[in-house]
Hints:
The chain is mostly helical. Among the domains are: 30-56; 85-180, no CATH class. It has helices at residues 2-7, 30-56, 66-69, 85-100, 116-124, 128-146, 153-158, 164-180. The longest helix has 27 residues, at 30-56.
Amino acid sequence: MAASLHTARAAPTGPTTPTPAPADGDRLSLDARLAAVEAAMTVKLDEAAVAHEVRTAHIDTAPLDLADVITAPLTPAPPQTYTTPVATLLERAHHRMETGGWCAGALADEDGAHCMLGAIRKEAGGDRGLEADAVSVVLDAIRRRFGGDVDSVPSFNDAHGTGRIPMRMLGEAASMADARGL
């Protein structure tokens, strides 16, 4: 009996003769074959969608209210990496531009985006001395990185097409202000 188990073989399930290659006139173009595969996949996906609906029709679900799910504030609080006043101000200005957007040609635009100076001014809260110190550090950081021919923070901001480099310079200036104890 054991010998018969080892010698038994399954019957072949497919055709035993090779399928003849199509004649040149019977060949489909690549676009036609792709369209046929897409149509077949669409049918399969539609069948799967119907099967899913049938299998889950008995499950009672209530609509989900996002207010029940989202419990964190939509905009994260600004980080508190630095403890010195100018560095903290520059960090907040960086965060304002990162979350509110960057603009050029104006301190702020109608959507709430700010340029470098606009973000610093907004975060300084009317303290012109703190604002001036922050702008001075930013200009120094810009000149160290890009050379001494940059004449102002607004001109540097407006010379860029995106806020990526201006925001990076605010971050570097915050680090520099912290290192200086400002």
